Amino acid sequence: MIRLPNDSVSDRFSRAFALTVAAVTVLTSGYFTVAGLVAPGVLVPGGESSAPRVFAAYMAARSIVLLGGLTLFAALRAWRPLALLLGLNAGVQLIDAVIGAAHHQFAQTAGPACFTLLLAAAALGLARTPRGVVTSHAH
Length: 139
What we know:
- Helix 3 (50-76) runs antiparallel to helix 4 (79-102).
- The chain has one domain (10-127).
- It has helices at 12-38, 40-43, 50-76, 79-102, 106-127.
- The chain is an all-alpha fold.
- The protein has 5 helices and no strands.
């Protein structure tokens, strides 16, 4: 038997769930990325000064890479790389939830915590799928 790395095909529900979670993540995080760049004062107090604007630009660079990867792998239906990026985004959201909790901010804790669960579930749904097996008839 020969196992080919791209033969894994997750079940239809896991793929649809992962694509939905990826889309919602891109839209939601994309909104906050753009809002942070355009009007950081709307998101955080004192956001109109120079330092928060520069920080927002650095954060946007990271978001663009992660969200761009989610978009690309979702569009290509590249399930394994998509699972990896969903998992990485779950890690980012988990850290965001911890930061929100440390500052006693309910919305900044609950939102990321929900995204952590959704992203992790989507990543695990894609990653837990067994790889397909192709038999070789070589003599």
